[in-house]
Amino acid sequence: MNKVVTFGEILMRIAPIGNKKLNQSNQLEYYFGGTEANVAISLSQLGNKTQHITTVSEDFVGKAVKNYLQQYGVDTSLIMDSHHPLGIYFLEAGAVMRSSIISYNRINSAFCNIDVSQIDWDVAFKDCNWFHWTGITPALSNNTYSALKEGLQIASKKGITISADPAYRSDLWNYGKNAIDTLNELVALSNIFIGGPNEINELLGTSYTNQNDDFIKGAKHIIKEHTNLTKVFDKTRTSLNANWHKIKARMWNGTEFTETKELEITHVVDRIGTGDAYAAGLIHGLLHYDDAKALEFANAACALKHTIEGDANLVTEKEIISIIQGNLSGRILR
Amino acid sequence: MNKVVTFGEILMRIAPIGNKKLNQSNQLEYYFGGTEANVAISLSQLGNKTQHITTVSEDFVGKAVKNYLQQYGVDTSLIMDSHHPLGIYFLEAGAVMRSSIISYNRINSAFCNIDVSQIDWDVAFKDCNWFHWTGITPALSNNTYSALKEGLQIASKKGITISADPAYRSDLWNYGKNAIDTLNELVALSNIFIGGPNEINELLGTSYTNQNDDFIKGAKHIIKEHTNLTKVFDKTRTSLNANWHKIKARMWNGTEFTETKELEITHVVDRIGTGDAYAAGLIHGLLHYDDAKALEFANAACALKHTIEGDANLVTEKEIISIIQGNLSGRILR
Amino acid sequence: MNKVVTFGEILMRIAPIGNKKLNQSNQLEYYFGGTEANVAISLSQLGNKTQHITTVSEDFVGKAVKNYLQQYGVDTSLIMDSHHPLGIYFLEAGAVMRSSIISYNRINSAFCNIDVSQIDWDVAFKDCNWFHWTGITPALSNNTYSALKEGLQIASKKGITISADPAYRSDLWNYGKNAIDTLNELVALSNIFIGGPNEINELLGTSYTNQNDDFIKGAKHIIKEHTNLTKVFDKTRTSLNANWHKIKARMWNGTEFTETKELEITHVVDRIGTGDAYAAGLIHGLLHYDDAKALEFANAACALKHTIEGDANLVTEKEIISIIQGNLSGRILR
Amino acid sequence: MNKVVTFGEILMRIAPIGNKKLNQSNQLEYYFGGTEANVAISLSQLGNKTQHITTVSEDFVGKAVKNYLQQYGVDTSLIMDSHHPLGIYFLEAGAVMRSSIISYNRINSAFCNIDVSQIDWDVAFKDCNWFHWTGITPALSNNTYSALKEGLQIASKKGITISADPAYRSDLWNYGKNAIDTLNELVALSNIFIGGPNEINELLGTSYTNQNDDFIKGAKHIIKEHTNLTKVFDKTRTSLNANWHKIKARMWNGTEFTETKELEITHVVDRIGTGDAYAAGLIHGLLHYDDAKALEFANAACALKHTIEGDANLVTEKEIISIIQGNLSGRILR
Amino acid sequence: MNKVVTFGEILMRIAPIGNKKLNQSNQLEYYFGGTEANVAISLSQLGNKTQHITTVSEDFVGKAVKNYLQQYGVDTSLIMDSHHPLGIYFLEAGAVMRSSIISYNRINSAFCNIDVSQIDWDVAFKDCNWFHWTGITPALSNNTYSALKEGLQIASKKGITISADPAYRSDLWNYGKNAIDTLNELVALSNIFIGGPNEINELLGTSYTNQNDDFIKGAKHIIKEHTNLTKVFDKTRTSLNANWHKIKARMWNGTEFTETKELEITHVVDRIGTGDAYAAGLIHGLLHYDDAKALEFANAACALKHTIEGDANLVTEKEIISIIQGNLSGRILR
Amino acid sequence: MNKVVTFGEILMRIAPIGNKKLNQSNQLEYYFGGTEANVAISLSQLGNKTQHITTVSEDFVGKAVKNYLQQYGVDTSLIMDSHHPLGIYFLEAGAVMRSSIISYNRINSAFCNIDVSQIDWDVAFKDCNWFHWTGITPALSNNTYSALKEGLQIASKKGITISADPAYRSDLWNYGKNAIDTLNELVALSNIFIGGPNEINELLGTSYTNQNDDFIKGAKHIIKEHTNLTKVFDKTRTSLNANWHKIKARMWNGTEFTETKELEITHVVDRIGTGDAYAAGLIHGLLHYDDAKALEFANAACALKHTIEGDANLVTEKEIISIIQGNLSGRILR
User: Fold this and answer.
1) Interface predicted TM-score (ipTM) of this complex, two decimals
2) In the UniProt record, does the keyword Kinase occur (chains A, B, C, D, E, F) (predicted)?
3) Which of B66, C119, C293, F242 is the S-S candidate for B76 at Cβ 3.0 to 4.6 Å?
4) C3-116+127-324: CATH homologous superfamily?
């Protein structure tokens, strides 16, 4: 069985019910989420062995994080405790043209204060064949950067496939490191690049457009720049508004370009974590199918996540395959 | 005043709130539902006298079923108790391309163990002028089949109009009887056929397409085969996805073909029970209007059910008439 | 800082959750609302000083009204108490082609029994530069009519700008006064007319169509008739159904005609109070921008209200400006 | 089978959840309640035929009242509609030493405007052997007084047993009639007096203490005064605080005095309607048992109501009998 | 680390919120529970390795059971799937003298249809040093009896300590086996007896009273009868009513009698599963402390369960130890 | 009118519903709370003018804090914004002997980073006659200590009465200052001491017992030590368990000792903020009554807070007076 290891912060998402604003009701709903942990949960639902490494608060909030991951079958045995609090984000969900607003309380969180020396990467990488990281982790603190780099170096040496989702978030990166240099340093240790012209332009200082031609040029460019990279997977989104999206995916796997058909989500339930659903679908696909089917699988997984509440994609492989087969009418299954 | 009698199982629908999956929250919502009881409730809301016959558990769950039917004015005085439990179905509501999933717990339910000898059909059919049945009932157990057959024979002798909704559900029919033979036997006792090419093909082994021409041919065929039948009413649905449907209805009443205009439900609230809403609208229509208006009424009733939570169509005659008159903008009524 | 004074009834809106009907659940949700108070709250959220004058019940319900207005920064120091109850409206929210239904319990409410002599208009109008009224107030009782008239006369004398939203609701006006004469009397005291051909035709007995040409003719006509009026602002709505609307706004400011682009609300969250959001946006716009931008601002404010639960528009100036700038994709703000 | 007819107003009880105050949350819960209707529902749960006569609003609120009564098996066929609204009461539930607060919105309600001429008492009293009234009804309006008086006169003539619960509520009686004279006039038409020294003192202007001796004297006095009366049933309550009560009942049936043992309710769930539960238990008891057992039954029914949410006592005869038999430990029944 | 294996049915508990009756609201709450699984969860919370063996439905309900156990760290890798549904129980929670009512839907459940041949006891008992069973399991079906007997025989051979909670439930045992003979047969394979005079009398046909003297005599008697037994642990409960209990525990460990102090639960939150909390506390205690402290620990664990919602005891060892140390004031821990 | 100024941190309390643990449900409820702000809200409910000074996050969470204070009439015009997050505490509510657990996320919060230079004490203290502080504020950070000290010095100079609630919380005070020295420094600037032997012993290093005699000695001692102090007010609590408390209050006002009668709270709704309710009641009492009545008022206010959900005491002066008058039965007020 495949084993995928992920590493990253888990936040508690706290939000009023439905489209209410915080000052309209004292009823809240919470989910846990974290871009890398979302990937782990999704991969676990798809039948893969997974382990997530992070640091949580040593209180009942941190305990609930572990309960949450365990519930979905993610191994939590390497999760560390800290006397710092768990990071939080508050969400006011928008609708139509009104944007959702997220407010973070994550500075100085348990994960930002991770103790690198406590991570036993050798235990983590035992029987592991995939390691996934995102650009959020090195953006948080020097500790999290160091821990990730160490993990990547060890994984790389062990020949574990490494997927990079190097999303650059300019509102983070407040601890002193140069974002672009650092991301390039870490991408250089990776094999699969999840991103498109935007991400490539950020890393390489280029200006590829969003056209397929330019996507291919950019993909070749980043593969040339970072020679460990072999394949580039991108997704594109058209947002009519907060409730109505269309998504499509494309790839350059070193030899060929493929693009999926577009899927339309006319009634978005929850947009958060859809990128993570794509990444999880992609990893599962690359572990089990050929590249083109992996891409279709990733796109369909991403589409389905829009219909799931919370941060993680709780759908099954069977449901995703059914979407690929064109069953889009959502008829009741008895 | 008209009196319509219905006979069939009532299940408890249990579901998480909104689009949540069962493992995401311990909050649930329940409704009672049963295809024939849904018809009775809807007919009661439309101003008709109704009586539903079934067997429920002798505990507080069964008591709540009676409370529920009584609330909406359905006569429950012939409902029987059993030491077997009430049937249940769990629902995880899908969205967009994600299917809703239903899981049943109905084998060996109170209704499956119905005691045929306890039903006093003479009391039930006193002042009754319509009896409605569906293909679910004979599919459940030999007991339910026998009870239904007895009811149909008595109703037929009394000259009560009988409407048949002979939906064939292949996942049922596990007690030994041949589904097709049995359904034909029961349809032969009926006067109004609710179904189209699909249902006709199943019963007659034919292969009519869904085109109007073929619908008419099929309708004529089934009327020829089962000479008690006089009219055939069908509805067609186009599902863009789980949230967006279009519906239309058509009929062959022995002399003419009519088709309604299409109604579009861009934001489906609850799809379950929409077929029952159609049947109820049709029966009400046939009891009060001419065939063509009955068909329009049934289609409009069906459309409105998509906007109602739960299994039963809780709209009024006035609301349905307003839809027929073209008031589709949903403006606030003060 | 600008100060806007509003005067009118506040009702308690009580409704089942979601699309449920009242007899489907004993869970309810409440909001306070009133067309003029909604304007005050919205103007307060946009950064203006506001004061609302009304009469509420002297019990904990009335106290909660004051708490509610204070929460959003509206001055409640002139609100009066009465031993009559607060007015209420029950709402069953429709969907798609099913209309929402509102049932009022407001006859003989605290506000209808307002004691005109208790209102200290001089205190209210201190530092005030805008007074807003609607046609609901004079429709309720002779007391409310007299109070409003007095307020308008004093405001007019003080040179305060007066905006009139003279919606004629034929189901009200049960206390003996002639609606049309009365509304004309009060519009004559006003400077800004919020309404279009419908409202103008009602007041003047004319028959202008909804075309822009006719709108301009009607606007000129009403300005000619009531010489205090200088500008006419209208909005038009296309309702595909209860969940899907398109809105647009237009004006004749005495010298030029302008029309906004159309905004489409594909997934309406709450339609109630959208007209008040338009009025508030307009007043804010006229206080801070030129007429054309004020119109765009009003239309965008109105669009955003469709995404907010409850009666009042709780959005910020920044959010509205962003809509004017064309940011309609509803992407998450972090 | 016995049939009990009740007559009186039904109010909608609207309250925040738990012990919250109205301004702490916009979540509400509703129940319908009315002292006489509560008696009808309880008697229906105990297996008796019941009919309630009242006037409700002609909107969906009034419709929900009928649904509610029907749910529990109360005949609603004589309930009238009115264009006046249904009466409402808001409740903030207290705890320990903090009092619950009730605020009424019932002046000019549908029931206050009842049209006496619409009541068909002959239909109501067909096969009826018990009529129950309370002092709330004549306190509301001249209409309700007149309707009640007519009902009592007809019932009396037909030899139907009449129970009177002549609670005097000084905050009502605002329409001009003298409360004491009127209550005496109506009690004079009754056979069973539900009340004790307090109520007797109010009616007769006496000053009996709450001691048993004085209770007996008072009972004899009122029976002597109103010669149709034959029996007097009282209950006494010791409230340690809002959550902890002790109740006891006593009677003078013309020949003997009996007192029940005291029942202790250490954790009150809902106090409202406990007096109505007593009255219903008493009527049921007098219809089925001897006087002493009827008294025990009434006291136990009253005790159990303290554990039921809402206004009506939804317990079964079996549950009440079990309390009389001394099963007070509340152990789980499987 | 210790490993405890449990074997038994898991049911879904479905209940209205608070003290509502099922017909008062369509809002429900669910928990999973099963006497043996409750023990496993509690032992897991206390830091022990646990594995639960059962059969669940192969649908999303069964999946949620596994999610639930995994959440609390119980190994689910040996749980089997079945096409039969998961057993259910409905609960209406009582209060004070009103009993809670439970209605079961478990006949023919997934667990009753367990396939004995699928259980790999050798895997289950690897590194296991404790096996716990209750009298519910052999009472359900011949399948469950056979599976349990096989497990006990294997565990016994492997020298694993076996605790028996042989509760006799006369409403079960409908599949033909003699309850008393069967329970004796299984207790004979066990080492620790959890029960007192009631259970001993049922098994041995004796009539020991509930006095401590008789408890000791009975304990000696059952140990003499079933020579594998070495210790007997009992608990006694005084129920003032459904909300107010007092509990105490006692033991005869073959050489000495000990009794704990009494703990008073003045405000019971949830009584279900308190016996399982006792059993789990006892097993944990016997694995870590001496017999007398184990008994105190079990009693304190049981007391704390009364304050936890749901079936399982989610408290920590630290919380239980604190109760033993006499910290009963429930002061806030920061 | 009196004006009371308070200064201190406001935290968001986030908790599962009822007695659930965080991992049992994703439904949460929130309240805002802060010991000093709680005092301000309570004083505002009692009819006093109040202003609270603090720093909140500049996001929608901080905005909701202001909305919350404004709702209850507290002046928020001097509240500052910060890019640091609002402090949070998570609560799992215990029951009976199970402790509630609070977990804080307040390090580095908006308030800890308060900018002393931004506070305009002169505006705050305009028309102010009372300033209240607690020992939480100087315990948080050097910034908060400095700000408080400045405020106390200015208030003292202006002759404003200063009340000190110098609760020493050893888990705070992590920024370097010596707690005892600092608290003494600040108490020296105060006039009213709220505390008893515990607090006095902490400040003075003494060892007074909890007896009244020793309380008086301690009170005299602290007054002697800090000569600005004139009166000492204490409260004592007996906790049978988390749900059942008894409270009493005592004072030494420089010339006489008084003790209130004990109030028993048999069913605690929410314990948090009861000390703040006492302080607010005391301040109101001292502003309006003599010392002895102020003490009774404070004790009754404190008792009532135990019945209110959330952190602030939302009761009226009338309700408190009624408790003092001995109305403890909690009977319904209509």
Assistant:
1) 0.95
2) yes
3) B66
4) Ribokinase (3.40.1190.20)
